[in-house]
Amino acid sequence: MRGTILAVPMPNGEWVYPACQFTEHGLVPGLDDFLRAFREDADPWTRLAVLLAPSARHGGRSALELLQEGRVDEARSIAATYGEQG
Questions:
Q1: Is 26 helix (H, G, I), strand (E, B) or coil?
Q2: How far is the C-alpha of 24 from the C-alpha of 3, rounded, in Å?
Q3: Hey, is 22 helix, strand or coil?
Q4: Are 72 and 34 a contacting pair, CB within 8 Å?
Q5: Would you list the DSSP string of 34-71?
Q6: Bridge partners, residue 54, by sequence
Q7: Residue 21 gets which letter from DSSP?
Q8: Over the stretch 34-63, which tens digit does the pLDDT of each residue have?
Q9: Residue 7 backbone phi and psi in degrees, to 5
Q10: Which long-range CB contacts under 8 A does 72-80 form with residues at least 24 apart?
Q11: pTM for the whole thing?
């Protein structure tokens, strides 16, 4: 299913899967919801940057940290509002 895992293109044309999205048991729970919350035109590198960037709205916690804590709705809201002027 499209949008369930993040792959980013490398300069040599290869696509890689950043390790941060995996746990010892598989994908970070809620990652698919986070990725699907982006607008269609958000490129993979932007999605990765937003996943890892600290969010002032969430006390400096990144979307990845929120997902790891089970706070999927809060992480998804970061993706859904990315690019909005506020």
A1: strand
A2: 21
A3: strand
A4: yes
A5: HHHTS-TT--HHHHHHHHHSEEGGGTTEEHHHHHHTT-
A6: 62
A7: G
A8: 999 998 888 999 999 999 999 999 999 999
A9: -120, 140
A10: 72/29, 72/30, 72/33, 72/34, 75/30, 75/33, 75/34, 76/30, 76/33, 76/34, 76/37, 77/37, 78/34, 78/50, 79/34, 79/35, 79/37, 79/38, 79/47, 79/50, 80/37, 80/38
A11: 0.89
Residue with tokens 């044309």: 13
Token pair for residue 41? Answer: 């035109």
For residues 74 and 32, the answer to whether their CB atoms sit within 8 Å is: no
- Please give the structure tokens belonging to residue 24: 């010892």
Distance, CA of 81 to CA of 86 (rounded, Å)? 9
60 neighbors 54 (Cβ within 8 angstroms):
yes
Q: Whole-angstrom Cα distance, residue 62 to residue 53?
A: 5
